[in-house]
Design goal:
This protein is low in regular secondary structure. About 0% of the residues lie in helices and about 10% in strands. The chain has a domain of about 35 residues. It contains no helices and 2 strands. Strand 1 and strand 2 form a beta hairpin. The N and C termini lie far apart (about 40 Å). About 0% of the residues are buried.
Amino acid sequence: MGKLSVNLCGITLDNPVIPASGTFGYGYEFAELYDINVLGTFSFKGTTKDARFGNPTPRIAECTA
């Protein structure tokens, strides 16, 4: 197999596979289905000290966070 490592902003990843924030949870949900250790990294939502509101309507389904 060829070399898949990539450099992302000065950080070397073994491969470029980065599951998207929101669709992959925190990774634990998929650990029983897939070896998450072989992924390049995870993408998480950011946090701030100030409140941030989500996207405006229309939405498919409203739910609490």
